[in-house]
């Protein structure tokens, strides 16, 4: 997967970049640009490739545009494909087409250049990001402007909430997320997310599901540091919400639901304890890394009415020092009928992944029903990695 991602910016992409830059920048030495861009590229991961290409771009722009940032932006915008001619997030892979222009992942180094070189001209830089985000997201590039020029940038983000392009409207939400993946954390917004809330209120009913998904992820970010803020948001915006907004708010609630936050569960009508019994069994009792255990959950209602239930489970992974660290996994959302008995089955595999090292030992598994731990079992992991 990592190999595939980094190859989104490969030698073909460098050729596309060189072709279109030479088309709009008289005096650019395309051969020298491409040779410098390809040098060492193969050994770099994706973000390092972005930074490398951005730095090469900066050096060559200096040679043909000196310190004229606005003129360099004019040229880069002229190199872009018309909006909508290439599916967003993709890139043409064939011969360079003068009519097509730049779009897709190859635009990321351009946005990175704007973020690094445009902080002294924020208005022109934000104009450039407005254009570029319609070909590939500028969500990472806008963040330095939020920190360095907050008043200007918040005013621009507010205006972008009404932009005709869904990509620009999404940028207002995605670019200001406190904990954006692959992006620098905005510590000021982690401490106080208030500046983003008016944007999210305007965008939560956006006609684009793409924009609404960003709002849900943004609210989920906020919930990690300010669960009370999400609870207030649910209390204000969940009652009588149309179906698309309910789906957005449900996705925004996922971290606190998995954590068993009682008030958030109650907001969704799932805060009452189970009236009945819950059991958990695992088999086999021991596995090697790469194998799976089967979770079998038994539910028996002792209630006279239907019970809405959120059922998750936590695997308490063994750490190198022998202590354990729980990770909650999404299980089932269901309604248990009066007196109903139900069995739920799920396979859970332990595989080697880049973000977690697995260690041998006894792994406890706990069952959460509407936020309450009602049963537990365990299995032995025989091999680590």
UniProtKB/TrEMBL annotation:
It comes from the Bacteria. Pfam families: DNA_alkylation. SUPFAM superfamilies: ARM repeat. Gene3D superfamilies: ARM repeat domains. Signal peptide: none annotated. This is 3-methyladenine DNA glycosylase AlkC. It comes from Sphaerotilus uruguayifluvii.
